[in-house]
């Protein structure tokens, strides 16, 4: 997104948080999220309408009025307020507005999970799903198939998730599979990171030679928090090829404390 769209999205996110806090109901947050996805799909398929509601040359009141006429009787007041506030901002393009509504829909579901006391669980479930997709190459290939319909891919993933995750995780995962940005693995992991961000935490991707228990993860999170000066969320997985120790990635920075890494560095030094 260009600067104008980034600013518009930031304003829309603040508006969304405010109206959801005022609504104070988990069901409203979930319904709003799903409504925003549907509205984004409609705008995605109708270029003329997309241009009309994102035309910064048109008066703000006209754009809001158009939205009210189109969806006012079809969605809850919270959704209507969020969309009206979104179109009132100046977006760089209609496509950015659509992407912004998708981001708002995801945020609404995450806020719903937060209200339900499940945001940490959703974060963990999304990360675990990204790791399953990383291991299950055949499943990920099917979900990445550009020739398959979104409905078919969502149906496939729904069968995998049914009864195993919260309703928020399932809704988010199905949506991101139906509207890919990069690939299923990275898109799902990005959602997990967004969940951590809403909790005021930065993600540390940890790969260890053995499973880390909850106590070990808590100690590691505390140590990394002191190093980076902010609360950390540990996303861990096991790779026995490391032989011992672990690697830690925070953003673009990688700390390699694995046995395999030490051996590789020793070999390089001896050449």
Automatic annotation (TrEMBL):
GO molecular function: proton-transporting ATP synthase activity, rotational mechanism
Principal location class: membrane
CC per GO annotation: plasma membrane; proton-transporting ATP synthase complex
Membrane topology field: Peripheral membrane protein
Keyword terms: ATP synthesis, Cell membrane, CF(1), Hydrogen ion transport, Ion transport, Membrane, Transport
Role: F(1)F(0) ATP synthase produces ATP from ADP in the presence of a proton or sodium gradient. F-type ATPases consist of two structural domains, F(1) containing the extramembraneous catalytic core and F(0) containing the membrane proton channel, linked together by a central stalk and a peripheral stalk. During catalysis, ATP synthesis in the catalytic domain of F(1) is coupled via a rotary mechanism of the central stalk subunits to proton translocation. This protein is part of the stalk that links CF(0) to CF(1). It either transmits conformational changes from CF(0) to CF(1) or is implicated in proton conduction.
Alphabetical list of HAMAP family matching this protein: ATP_synth_delta_bact (MF_01416)
Family as reported in the entry's similarity comment: Belongs to the ATPase delta chain family.
PANTHER family, per database record: ATP SYNTHASE DELTA CHAIN
NCBIfam families in UniProt: ATP_synt_delta (TIGR01145), PRK13430.1 (NF009967)
Stated name of the protein: ATP synthase subunit delta
Organism from which the protein derives: Corynebacterium endometrii
Gene from which this protein is expressed: atpH
């Amino acid at each position: 997104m260009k600067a104008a769209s980034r600013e518009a999205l930031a304003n829309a996110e603040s508006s969304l948080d405010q109206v959801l806090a005022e609504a104070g109901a988990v069901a409203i947050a979930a319904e709003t999220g799903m409504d925003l996805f549907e509205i984004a799909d409609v705008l995605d398929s109708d270029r003329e309408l997309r241009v009309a509601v994102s035309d910064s040359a048109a008066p703000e009141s006209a754009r809001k009025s158009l939205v009210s006429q189109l969806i006012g009787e079809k969605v809850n007041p919270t959704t209507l307020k969020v969309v009206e506030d979104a179109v009132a901002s100046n977006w760089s393009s209609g496509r950015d507005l659509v992407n912004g509504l998708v981001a708002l829909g995801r945020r609404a579901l995450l806020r719903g999970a937060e209200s339900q006391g499940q945001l940490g669980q959703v974060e963990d479930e999304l990360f675990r799903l990204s790791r399953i997709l990383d291991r299950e190459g055949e499943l990920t290939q099917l979900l990445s198939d550009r020739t398959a319909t979104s409905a078919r891919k969502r149906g496939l993933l729904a069968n995998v998730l049914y009864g195993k995750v919260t309703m928020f995780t399932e809704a988010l995962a199905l949506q991101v599979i139906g509207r890919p940005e990069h690939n299923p693995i990275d898109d799902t992991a990005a959602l997990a990171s967004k969940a951590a961000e809403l909790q005021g935490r930065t993600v540390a991707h940890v790969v260890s030679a053995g499973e880390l228990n909850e106590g070990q993860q808590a100690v590691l999170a505390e140590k990394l928090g002191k190093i980076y000066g902010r609360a950390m969320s540990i996303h861990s997985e096991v790779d026995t090829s490391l032989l011992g120790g672990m690697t830690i990635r925070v953003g673009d920075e990688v700390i390699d404390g694995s046995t395999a890494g030490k051996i590789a560095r020793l070999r390089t030094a001896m050449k």
